[in-house]
Design a protein that fits this description.
By secondary structure, this protein is an alpha/beta fold. Bound molecules: NADPH dihydro-nicotinamide-adenine-dinucleotide phosphate and the ligand CC(C)CCC[C@@H](C)[C@H]1CC[C@H]2C3=C(CC[C@]12C)[C@@]1(C)CCC(=O)C[C@@H]1CC3. The site of NADPH dihydro-nicotinamide-adenine-dinucleotide phosphate has 28 residues, from helix 1 and helix 3.
């Protein structure tokens, strides 16, 4: 069978393309006529039509061969936030991202789109309709956030119109959707262990949850608008569903959709946060002897008990972004994609 040769600007690579967001992105890029290579440490990307390169993004030689002939790179690889492994985060998100930038420049990649996170400005206190002008968190709550900040700075500072290397960072928040390995599975696991009975705080805190297809849409718009004359070069952009929702209403809707009871009883935020800090400290101290991972980490408790929603006005203005799927549709689609997590299964 003859293979169609695509123009270089339609040849892209997705680093982290086997992951949750990465794989949705790969599928949409293929639909839009891109030829796609995936570079990932995890070998689970079996999407037909994709060239798969297995490797660690800290390995420059492996990257150089995977990025040959590619003009556009999406970097959406990261260790999972729950891993709480400082050296892994530093190695992959900081040193690894440096390596990605060097490799891109060496092989002549012209555009690099980073998946950052809106959490780079989150310090555990309320953020209401936060814009991209908010400063980076001075005291990030965890190593994931700390290294995502450094990663974003590296990518945005590497933007160089003279050298023809353009970069942009997309900051999604609370991504959910089919095949998400985090939000719904952790929620259901917590419910199955009988720990989802409590609302942390008064339950009125508003947050952003963003359906994965909207996040993908934001990435592709950014990539296609990344030209030397564009205002988006070297800048970060929030991508959300633009429908802040009460954290506990969202959790309840997902739980009820899957057949579980919603949480009912209230616990004071400060008490739960203090307990989570204590548990985290215990886990660190006891790590040489026993390994246990608390469900209620300080970061999760902070996310569950504060306002954190962001304005995506800038993405609307500069790249014509508009969410394609509403929160209601996104939740329905997500719930029905997890038949195995339904109560009783
Ligand atoms: N999920 C969310 O709510 C949000 C996510 N983000 C960001 O979006 C991006 C994608 O997240 P998501 O899809 O949820 O995460 P996933 O864990 O599903 O995907 C990340 C992928 O990167 C791979 N990876 C990890 N380390 C390396 C490495 N050293 N070299 C090559 N590949 C590696 C992972 O493999 P393995 O599974 O084997 O580790 C995985 O396949 C991340 O950058 C994350 O920080 C931002 C905001 C919110
Ligand atoms: C146990 C319950 C209190 C909470 C269960 C749900 C949580 C697992 C998720 C709710 C908000 C999510 C979230 C992220 C991970 C999963 C949650 C904590 C991120 C930390 C993922 C990475 C990011 O960049 C930011 C996300 C914010 C929201």
């Amino acid at each position: 069978m003859a293979t169609r040769v695509r123009p270089r600007n339609k040849r892209c690579a997705v680093i982290g393309g086997s992951g949750f967001l990465g794989r949705h992105l790969v599928e949409k890029l293929l639909d839009r006529g891109y030829s796609v290579s995936v570079f990932d440490i995890c070998p689970s990307c079996e999407v037909p039509g994709v060239t798969f390169h297995r490797g660690d993004l800290c390995d420059k030689q492996a990257l150089l061969s995977a990025l040959k002939d590619v003009s556009l790179v999406f970097h959406c690889a990261s260790p999972a936030p729950g891993s709480d492994n400082r050296s892994l985060f530093e190695r992959v998100n900081i040193q690894g991202t440096r390596t990605v930038i060097e490799a891109c420049i060496e092989v002549g990649v012209q555009r690099l789109v980073l998946t950052s996170s809106a959490s780079v400005v989150f310090e555990g206190t309320d953020i209401k309709n936060g814009s991209e002008d908010l400063p980076y968190a001075k005291k990030p709550i965890d190593y994931y956030t700390k290294t995502k900040i450094e990663q974003e700075k590296l990518v945005l500072n590497a933007c160089d119109k003279e050298k023809g290397f353009l970069t942009v960072a997309i900051r999604p928040h609370g991504i959910f959707g089919p095949r998400d390995p985090q939000l719904v599975p952790i929620l259901v696991d917590t419910a199955r262990r009988g720990k989802m009975k409590f609302i942390i705080g008064d339950g009125t805190n508003l947050v952003d949850f963003t359906f994965v297809e909207n996040v993908v849409h934001g990435h592709i718009l950014a990539a296609e608008r990344l030209r030397p004359d564009s205002p988006i070069c070297g800048k970060p952009y929030h991508i959300t569903n633009d429908e802040p929702v009460r954290f506990w209403d969202f959790m309840s809707e997902v739980l009820v959709g899957l057949g579980y009871d919603p949480p009912r009883y209230h616990l004071p935020y400060i008490l739960v946060y203090g307990l989570a800090l204590l548990l985290w400290l215990l886990a660190v101290i006891l790590r040489p002897l026993v390994s246990f991972k608390p469900t209620f980490t300080p970061m999760r408790v902070a996310l569950a008990g504060t306002h954190h929603y962001y304005s995506c006005e800038r993405a609307k203005q500069d790249m014509g972004y508009k969410p394609l799927v509403s929160l209601k549709e996104g939740i329905a689609c997500t719930v029905q994609s997890y038949p195995h997590l339904q109560k009783g299964d």
